[in-house]
């Protein structure tokens, strides 16, 4: 596995080794010793799997208590995956990073605790998997408006159409109005 820090150094792009032949492929997506050696020594407590149609945007979500680190990947389709640094003490506070994750490129992204996370489906549909370091706690869940002008995330909207949002995401507050981490 190859672990590459992004321009927000705590967000890590992970490229697994893929072994394939005419029958298909094999790849290891998580292995405790390899991740620990790369400085990612976390215990995962929950796995999630979602399927979304093209144009769906999920996020930007985080938990103000019980913050979750997430190891994310796509097993069908393509998404534009975004992490936003919400740690006030960080030199990259308020900065975002976007990566295309797909079933074809097999890239994974480590989004540490203290970040908001979201993704936008650019293919016809996408299946998205993520391992979490803490349990989902709806009472602590927060969201940031996807199109917040202060963050200015450059979402690759299909044909420029507005994304399909949940009611919660459509009503999310702006970046300047949300709780953040120390």
Explain the overall architecture:
It is built from 2 helices and 13 strands; from the N terminus they run ββββαβββββββββα. With 182 residues, it is mainly beta. The protein has a single domain, classed as Jelly Rolls (Sandwich), CATH 2.60.120.
Per DSSP E runs of 2 or more residues, the count of β-strands stands at 13
Strand content: 35-45%
Q: Uncertain runs with pLDDT below 50, 5 residues or more?
A: none
CATH superfamily placement: Jelly Rolls
Keywords:
5% helix; globular; 5-stranded antiparallel sheet; 182 residues; 6-stranded antiparallel sheet; mainly beta; 13 strands; Jelly Rolls
In short, what is this structure?
The protein is built from two helices and 13 strands. The strands form three sheets. Strands 1-2-10-7-12-5 form a six-stranded antiparallel beta sheet, with no helix packed on it. A five-stranded antiparallel beta sheet has the order 9-8-11-6-13, with no helix packed on it. The chain has one domain (2-177): Sandwich (Jelly Rolls), CATH 2.60.120.10.
């Amino acid at each position: 596995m190859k672990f590459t820090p992004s321009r927000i150094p705590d967000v890590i792009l992970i490229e697994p080794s893929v072994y394939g032949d005419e029958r298909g492929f094999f790849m290891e997506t998580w292995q405790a010793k390899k991740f620990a050696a790369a400085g990612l020594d976390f215990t995962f407590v929950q796995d999630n799997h979602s399927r979304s149609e093209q144009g769906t945007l999920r996020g930007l979500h985080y938990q103000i208590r019980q913050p979750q680190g997430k190891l994310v990947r796509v097993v069908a389709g393509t998404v534009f995956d975004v992490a936003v640094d919400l740690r006030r003490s960080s030199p990259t506070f308020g900065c975002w990073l976007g990566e295309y994750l797909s079933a074809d490129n097999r890239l994974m992204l480590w989004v540490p605790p203290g970040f908001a996370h979201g993704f936008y489906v650019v293919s016809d549909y996408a299946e998205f998997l993520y391992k979490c370091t803490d349990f989902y706690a709806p009472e602590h869940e927060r969201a940031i408006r996807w199109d917040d002008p202060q963050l200015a995330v450059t979402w690759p909207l299909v044909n420029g159409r507005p994304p399909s949002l949940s009611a919660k995401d459509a009503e999310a507050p702006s970046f300047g109005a949300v709780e953040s981490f120390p």
